[in-house]
């Protein structure tokens, strides 16, 4: 029996290409994935899913292996820096840095990419001791023609060394299968330092790795953070086993080979002359291993992760990592078959592919975030306190009735993803709401953009309250009175700036400022958000904050009503009317734009800022979030009648809508403003409800036209098939709901409005059974609704119906027509 030995530094090997520089890394390719070579027969709806959809343009999805709600997202990393590295992968790139185990789906920010594996064979490693970033040069080229992805499986052949890499996953374990060329050395690089979006401030704080004495196991941990930006406190443990023994190994710590089988490296906190923390160096541990050749050229690896402990990672491995690659893959397919249990009739092959892939994307997150033992890492109050590295972590024990979840991209997902889940996964919807209250108990505030137990403070407002209100109003009997009162307390404290002083003693001040900013103080104390505070400091995105806070306050009023607190209900209903402060109704001034007015930024004295340009946008510094006045004027989903009154009545409201859809396209310099229809930026969530607002006018058929256009022109069965950031299921949830023929404009009210059903029939799961949507006389050109009924009752008081109508055995039935003159026009019931 051979014994494992330490490989001499001079013989270290890595897959390095001569000339693999930024120029080659940024090469674009237009090769379509090979879909003709699945290794197993996919059945049911899984065969319609194409994980490459959304990996091109700005979709920012990843094609790798994941189970529904899985902690593991095992996927190739082809982009390490810049906006397109949010998911670690962009379809246009053919450079492979390796396969890492955690990714975000469709976001505009990243920072994961934990525990990077890269198989290699070459004996000519290029190692530059003087270059701290030498790993950037260690990359290979993929054979894009060999790339294949389906539910729970990804494979590719590496052009430089002819290795075939295959990936699959369970909830907590990533499975790798590498087939090396005949006679080639079987080697693997394990990089703990690789991290996505490192150019935005993320770095490794502490890395540790140990190779077991028997040569079959490697374990360790990585602490990482965004020193100056997003998620400030990430921790992951891993436990990896191999089916072949390691015969040679070199472990580098900070670029230097270490003696023995263990290495650890801790980053250094650098300070300026005044002693203020300014930067952290990188913690860096990388291992290069070579396996005994054995009887086959195949090496299998099973890699379990945990956010709790090394013992947790091992327990996860013991529970899920004992199966073979093919067994894990088959189990993953079966999980996706259950998750995609919609039955669609009609439509084209491409439309089915888009629909089921969209449904697939809505099932990736929120993810269950706990070990098999139920232990989880919750939200502490002091993540990386002021950059000093002082952790405050809350640990908890989940139950079968109440799991712990993570990756709540709430500003995006409250609008469509969570409403969709209240229909198709009602148990989960209730669990999400209770889980958010649990996170308030751990941290002192409801989550805003929660990221693996850490608060990022990303985006605006306090969107958790919308998800909680939606669940409570739809499922009031699933919450005790005490739970409703706790939810109300959490909502009030998260919308009250007075909590800032208390929390400042425990929270990282930078994060706290993003979660409880001056905008919350002004909403609470003054009834509007100005562009500057008392010290003339800029309050970024003030109009968007003001409008969203008004909506969130309306949602809190619904929670208060459910909790029986009439006083708070009335208080927050009054606060929800703050949107009126921003609207400038002056049809003469805005005659050139064809509208009666816009939502405008205000001075601290309550006056409109001048000069004013409705097309102007300034990313993350102006008064509008990822948009301009054209889009944000419409964000009053809780009081559309009130918005109509401010605009001058229903006719003015309809005229303003028309102008928004036909306005010129200037002023779209921010990348988030994509999918432009006039000045409706459909590629971003704040515009998602706008197409449905015609249902509050005398021309509801215009909603049907616009929805038909979006379904046809802004979603495609190709990598560039999502018109903007997918945002953790948000773009896809809009498609799923709209293709079925309805949408929830007010995401905290249990009322839906209809649009344009895409398919002849959709049978969707609801509590205790299935609900059916039928579209009679449906055709590509028959986009208009001639009549519509739900559970046998005609919609004759407006094109709306209640959530309670989604019952097992129920039916939403449309009769469609291609004749606009036959389209339904109903009075709007106020």
Can you characterise this structure?
The chain has 830 residues and is of the alpha+beta class. The protein has 2 domains: 50-341, Beta-galactosidase, Chain A, domain 5 (Distorted Sandwich), CATH 2.70.98; 345-822, Glycosyltransferase, CATH 1.50.10. The protein contains 19 helices and 40 strands. A 10-stranded antiparallel sheet has the order 3-6-7-8-9-20-13-12-11-16. Strands 1, 5, 10, 14, 15 and 19 form a 6-stranded mixed sheet that branches. Helix 4 crosses helix 19 (730-740), helix 7 crosses helix 8 (464-474) and helix 13 packs antiparallel against helix 14. Residues 7-38, 123-137 and 383-387 have low confidence and may be disordered. Residues 312-817 form the Glycosyl hydrolase family domain. This is Glycoside hydrolase family 92 protein. It comes from Photobacterium phosphoreum. Residues 48-306 form the Glycosyl hydrolase family 92 N-terminal domain. GO terms for molecular function: carbohydrate binding; peptide-N4-(N-acetyl-beta-glucosaminyl)asparagine amidase activity.
